[in-house]
Amino acid sequence: MKNRIVFSLLGFALAFSVSAQDLSDKQRAEIESRIKPVGEVCLEGDNTCGGPAVAAGGSSAPRSGEDVYNAACMACHSTGAAGAPKLGDAAGWADRIAKGNDALYESGINGVAGTGMMAKGGCMNCSDEETKAAVDYMVAGSQ
After folding, report:
1. DSSP state of 61
2. Dihedral of alpha carbons 134, 62, 125, 109, sign
3. What is the 3-state secondary structure (H, E, C) of the chain?
4. CA-CA distance, 107 to 119, in Å (whole number)?
5. What is the C-alpha to C-alpha distance for residues 61 and 8, in angstroms, rounded to an integer?
6. How would you class 55 by CB atoms within 10 Å of its CB: exposed for 0-12, middle for 13-18, buried for 19 or more?
7. DSSP 8-state assignment for residue 124
8. Is the C-alpha dihedral spanning 111, 90, 103, 43 positive or negative?
9. Which of 53, 107, 52 has its CA nearest to residue 85?
10. Model's pTM, two decimal places?
11. Which of 27-41, 64-78, 112-126 is predicted with the least confidence, judged by mean pLDDT?
């Protein structure tokens, strides 16, 4: 009985491998298109892959503070998630604004250890300038 199971499994494996090799060129191309990578990861300074990094939307112009806020900051700063000061809450922003723009930019760009504030609010394709513009947008709307 044990030998029959082994031979049955061996026969199934052999039949399966033969049928996998009998694919047409069209079938192979279809399979390859279904399993191809959807993107690639390139490290900064690596010019061997991809093209130059650009802001979302394909434009090389920096996004406005409002655009960055809507794309990355709004999730926390409109709801107060993880203790984030809400846009428009002057009392919630007062102590932060009192520290000055440089401190706010530092927090926006590098995050704040021990809090939910991630570097660039998690927007890793945002430039430092775009992050600063988002900080300026939130400060202007919260004084």
Report:
1. S
2. negative
3. CHHHHHHHHHHHHHHHHHHHHCCCHHHHHHHHHHHCCCCCCCCCCCCCCCCCCCCCCCCCCCCCHHHHHHHHHHHHHCCCHHHCCCCCCHHHHHHHHHCCHHHHHHHHHHCCCCCCCCHHHHCCCCCHHHHHHHHHHHHHCCC
4. 8
5. 64
6. middle
7. T
8. positive
9. 107
10. 0.59
11. 27-41
Those residues whose C-beta lies under 8 Å from the C-beta of residue 108, and which sit 6 or more positions away, are 120, 121, 131, 132, 134, 135
Counting every residue written for the chain, the total comes to 143
Band (pLDDT 50/70/90 cuts) for residue 30 is confident
Which stretches does DSSP call E strand in 3-124?
A: none
Q: Which residue has the tokens 């939910």?
A: 116
Question: Which candidate, 59, 84, 60, places its Cα nearest to that of 134?
Answer: 84
What's the pLDDT tens digit per position in 62-103? 999 999 999 999 999 999 988 999 999 999 999 999 999 999
Amino acid at 31: I
- Domains belonging to the chain, first-starting first, are 65-140 (1.10.760.10)
